[in-house]
């Protein structure tokens, strides 16, 4: 019986061999679900759900709905015990990959190729990007920075003002280039700057209030 932990590392090697330039991200929240694997390939983000021989389909319906909102394409990777009937549980555009235990290794078989997801929503897909990555896109294409606006506001501006294919490419490029250490440091600096601005605003309001109270 193959478990999730037995599948992951060989799966990553299989994906790299099959798709070439890839970046693998694990355990990403999408809606009410957590994507087991997110595969970044040029101009496309692929959600991958793993169902080992020990797993059931209990949450799969909800997972399919969430994955279909966020990813350009989706794949379900299943243990051999699921291979003959998993197609009944996922839409026709989902790819299906079966994994089987051999003597000293595991083999992967393409049961069905993934197709473009007709339900993907770009405003949700772009949520995988962090604030500095959004700011880079804004600067690159000469969009207003809107530093005081929310991330949702900025995402909407990017999606509304840039061609769809450009946004797809920029999302993939940002994820390929993401340096977690540098990015987290940049996010911390951004948050400190925002907190300082809020503190300054609060102090001004308090000073103004005390002046009014004194003059009353």
Automatic annotation (TrEMBL):
Q: What is this protein called?
A: Sce7726 family protein
Q: What NCBIfam families does UniProt report for this protein, alphabetically? A: sce7726_fam
| Annotated spans, Disordered | 196-216
Instruction: Return the InterPro entries for the record.
Output: Sce7726-like
């Amino acid at each position: 019986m193959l478990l999730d932990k037995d599948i992951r590392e060989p799966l990553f090697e299989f994906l790299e061999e099959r798709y070439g330039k890839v970046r693998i991200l694990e355990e990403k929240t999408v809606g009410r679900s957590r994507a087991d694997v997110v595969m970044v390939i040029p101009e496309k983000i692929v959600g991958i759900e793993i169902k080992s021989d020990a797993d059931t389909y209990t949450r799969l319906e909800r997972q399919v709905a969430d994955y279909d909102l966020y990813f350009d394409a989706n794949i379900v990777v299943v243990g051999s015990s699921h291979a003959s009937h998993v197609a009944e549980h996922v839409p026709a555009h989902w790819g299906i990959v079966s994994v089987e235990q051999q003597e000293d290794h595991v083999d992967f078989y393409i049961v069905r190729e993934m197709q473009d997801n007709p339900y993907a929503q770009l405003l949700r897909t772009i949520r995988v990007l962090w604030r500095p990555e959004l700011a880079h896109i804004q600067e690159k294409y000469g969009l207003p920075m809107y530093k005081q606006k929310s991330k949702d506001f900025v995402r909407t501006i990017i999606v509304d003002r840039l061609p769809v294919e450009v946004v797809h490419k920029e999302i993939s490029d940002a994820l390929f280039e993401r340096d977690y250490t540098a990015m987290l440091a940049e996010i911390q600096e951004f948050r400190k700057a925002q907190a300082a601005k809020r503190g300054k605003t609060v102090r001004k309001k308090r000073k103004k209030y005390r002046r009014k109270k004194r003059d009353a």
